[in-house]
Amino acid sequence: MNQPPSDHPSVQRCANACGITDVGRTRSENQDQFLIAELRKSMRVEGSSMPLKASGDLFGSTRGQLLIVADGMGGHAAGHKASSVAMDQLIDQLLNTVHWFLHSDQKHPHDEAVFLESLKRLLHHAHKRILFEAASDLSQRGMGTTLTMAYIVWPRMYVVHAGDSRCYLIRDRVCEQVTTDHTLARQLVDAGGLKPEDEASSRWSNVLWNVLGGSGQHELTAEVRRVDLREGDSILLCSDGLSRYVSSETIAEVVAPQESDLEPVCHHLVGLANAAGGEDNITVIVARPSPAMNEASGSRSTDGTYDDESDFSVDGPNHSASIEEFADEDTLPG
Fold first, then answer.
1. Long-range contacts for 43-49 (Cβ within 8 Å, ≥24 apart)?
2. 248: enclosing H helix or E strand
3. d(Cα 29, Cα 235) in Å, to the nearest integer?
4. Residue burial 30-62, b: 16+ Cβ < 10 Å; e: rest
5. What is the mean pLDDT of residues 206-213?
6. More confident residue, 188 or 9
């Protein structure tokens, strides 16, 4: 049964980014997830003659930023669990390897190649975790999720991706899709069997050949790309609930103006997707990375402990809760 869009979409924001997820107009459950997080230096002091405990925690400058969007699929809440498991697995891995991320400058080609392989492994581990979770519950067999993650250390952005969620780069009022849609329709276009203008309306546009989880019959392909950023660039990550209804030209028009407050920008984009149909969950993150994100800064908290390597600060995951089965969601072939 059709329902109006949620009056209270999940919204999270920080200094240079904002994320929103909305259930849309027709679905009763939100199976999307998003995350905005910063990576920064810190330490744990076990003892000192200095009055550090009275001063509280000290954190160094922000060294990087993570933006993640995941779009789950599967009835009976399996899609919600798949996207949640993927996000939890990524957070766990990043918490235990984040010091390596912070120290890696990737100035040597070999170092960057090793770094890119490590990004791919993040997705492969999350993929295996979903398959493991699904194997223990028949009702969740075949559950899967897309995942698009942007790791930004100015002036570089590394994007790791599987599925049909998207990462866009908006530069000089032009919106460029950084990722590739892992759908059968896109494969047909690339092979010359489908005209590009017919891709969005094709019945194969909802059929994914590459996701985390799923049937497990195919090896996951983790797409990784590097983008060299410039001042004035904007980054947008979204689920297909936005990209199916809002064109890249419209995204450029909405995002390109350099407003300091990104929440209205996100609300505008979600509103456009809902106005155009809103038949899917809608998730969007908009960020404006800049050299300032790497400037030295510090902060204190009050518990008097210091992380020994690094701090992973989560600005906004989404958690939705409902158990409903619905139709017309992304599917896997065969």
1. 43/306, 43/307, 43/308, 43/309, 44/305, 44/306, 44/307, 44/308, 45/304, 45/305, 45/306
2. helix 248-255
3. 27
4. bbbbbbbbbbbbbbebeeeeeebeeeebbbbeb
5. 92
6. 188
Query: What is residue 132's DSSP assignment?
Result: H
What is the domain partition of the chain in residue ranges?
A: 10-45+56-310
Question: Tokens at residue 90, please?
Answer: 């990524």
Tens digits of per-residue pLDDT, 248-271? 999 999 999 888 899 999 999 999
Task: Write b or e for each residue in 186-223: b if 16 or more Cβ atoms lie within 10 A of its Cβ, otherwise e.
Answer: bbbbeeeebeeeebeebebbbbbbbbbbbebeeebebb
Per-residue pLDDT tens over the stretch 168-208? 999 999 999 999 999 999 889 889 999 998 898 898 988 89
The structural architecture, per CATH, of the domain 10-45+56-310 is 4-Layer Sandwich (3.60)
Distance from C-alpha of 282 to C-alpha of 270, rounded to nearest angstrom: 7
Q: Which amino acid is at 145?
A: T
Instruction: Count Cα atoms within 13 angstroms, Cβ side, for 309.
Output: 11
